[in-house]
Write a structure and sequence with these properties.
By secondary structure, the chain is an alpha+beta fold. It contains eleven helices and 17 strands. It is 36% helix and 30% strand. The radius of gyration is 26 Å and the shape is globular.
């Protein structure tokens, strides 16, 4: 049987109106994954959650620009309604958690929260936000009537949501999902039994150190290294998602020069870092951080890169994912003529520590009485542990057993530095 050749010219001749649209798209700014994920996606998704899906079907299939614009405006309005519903439910949920469940989270290791009059179409979004805030798996539901509950679940990396639902299947009606998320229903009379059963499952697979929000940092960077060329190079990693997340950067000791609340509870900031007597500035956005305003004037920051398009200009900005007060001695240690050294006790053992030059980046070294040394460059999350560099193994120093001793070493070094400065005054 002969084949049929379909070319762009044949399609354009058959559908001239679509050809005009295609030319417009080719001449306009190309779509990027974040445009789909954070602009188009939420607006389309909002329709499926709280409105008539026919609106999106017509938007995506019509050849009439007037109808398309009208449906797009409906999507925008419904998405704003969805945002308001999420904010209201999240605020109510947080108040309930912090009043009734916060003290027992370490013991239960899972959060189960159910309230009437919440829209089941958006509670999954709220569950994700509660996971971000409290660092535990979240099962959230609302009453469909007096006898039935419908819910959504979101997990953390160490917790398998679908396996948890399987564990409680005798208490549930319908359920489904995967490792990271799921949905379920149950008779309302089974709610307390479900809460107990989920806690039992969570205690089998979660340890206390899992129950805190953590960020996995990919690499450190100075603000001088953040530029459009770097952003373009990162495009080869796209599209990013659950198994291929956006690169996360870390920069220590930045100054907050300007900050203000914008939009629906976001923070807009100007950050600065001085390197070799040169000041580098960059804009940053922190989504839904209004309650943390104002931020301290000096911070260690974790972030992703994003493009900002405004008034015809394109700039690179930071999307803040986490911050902390600077706990590490400043990089000026490296400029000293001699290494800064100190000693300290940790869990009734004696250690020695110091900041040394190792190439262009200062390095913290901690030694125990047996001759083992933990060495990590400031700003890095991977260090070396061993009696020599030749036989040392790489370790993740963000893990609690390493992070705690590192923070103790920094406190000892900070005290030594303060004493040295006092001697010179």
């Amino acid at each position: 049987m002969g084949g049929i050749s379909i070319t762009s010219s044949s399609l354009n001749s058959k559908y001239p109106q679509r050809a005009r649209y295609a030319n417009k798209i080719q001449n306009s700014k190309s779509l990027k994954p974040e445009d789909i994920g954070f602009r188009l996606g939420p607006r389309i998704n909002a329709i499926g959650r709280i409105a008539d899906p026919q609106i999106v079907i017509e938007l995506l299939t019509t050849d009439d620009m007037g109808i398309a614009q009208e449906r797009a405006m409906q999507c925008e309005a419904i998405n704003r309604q969805r945002q308001e519903m999420c904010e209201q439910i999240e605020n109510e949920a947080r108040e309930i958690v912090e009043t009734c469940y916060l003290a027992s989270l370490q013991q239960n290791r899972v959060l189960v929260i159910v309230q009437p009059n919440w829209h089941h179409g958006v509670i999954g979004i709220v569950a994700s936000r509660l996971v971000e805030r409290y660092g535990v798996p979240v099962f959230i539901g609302t009453y469909e009537d007096e006898t039935h509950i419908r819910g959504s679940a979101r997990g953390i990396p160490e917790f398998h949501v679908f396996e948890a639902l399987e564990y409680c299947r005798d208490l549930l009606g319908k359920f489904g999902g995967h490792k990271a998320a799921g949905g379920f229903s149950l008779p309302s009379e089974n709610l307390e039994a479900l809460r107990s059963s989920l806690s039992e499952f969570a205690n089998q697979c979660l340890e206390p150190q899992h129950l805190k929000p953590l960020l996995r940092i990919d690499t450190s960077a100075n603000l001088s290294q953040i530029h459009p060329q770097l952003y373009q190079q990162l495009h080869v990693l796209e599209p990013c998602g659950i198994d291929n997340p956006d690169p996360v950067f870390w920069t220590s000791h930045v100054r907050v020069i300007e900050q203000a609340t914008v939009g629906k509870g976001h923070l807009k900031l100007t950050l600065a870092q001085t390197i070799d007597d040169l000041e580098y500035k960059i804009k940053a956005i922190a989504w839904r951080w209004r309650e943390y305003f104002p931020l301290p004037s000096r911070l260690d920051i974790a972030y992703k890169l994003r493009e900002n398009h405004f008034n015809g200009n394109t700039t690179i900005e930071l999307e803040l994912l986490g911050v902390r007060l600077p706990t590490q001695p400043h990089i000026f240690f490296a400029a000293q003529s001699a290494p800064l050294r100190s000693a300290f006790e940790y869990e009734q053992r004696h250690y020695k520590c110091g900041i040394y030059k190792n190439g262009s980046v200062p390095e913290l070294r901690i030694g125990n009485p047996e001759g083992h040394i933990l060495a990590v460059q400031l700003g890095h999350t991977i260090g070396l542990l061993g009696t020599s560099r030749q036989e040392a193994v790489e370790v993740d120093v963000s893990q609690p057993q390493y992070d705690q001793i590192i923070q103790t070493a920094f406190q000892a070094l900070s005290t030594s530095l303060s004493n040295q400065n006092a001697e010179w005054e």
